[in-house]
Amino acid sequence: MNDERIFRLDDKPAMVVGAGSGIGQAIAQAFAAVGARVGCIDVASEAAQDVAAGINSNGGHAVGIACDVSNEASVTDAVASFVESFGAPRILVNGAAAHDKSGTILDVPPDEWNAVLGVNLTGPYLMSRAVLPHMIAAGGGSIIHIASQMGRVGSPERPAYCATKGALIQLAKVMAADHAADNVRVNTLSPGAVETGRMTFRFGSMDEARRVSGPLHLLKRLGQPNEIAAAAVFLASEASSFMTGADLLVDGGYTAV
Question: How far is CA 245 from CA 32, 74, 125, 161, in A?
Answer without folding.
Answer: 25, 28, 16, 21
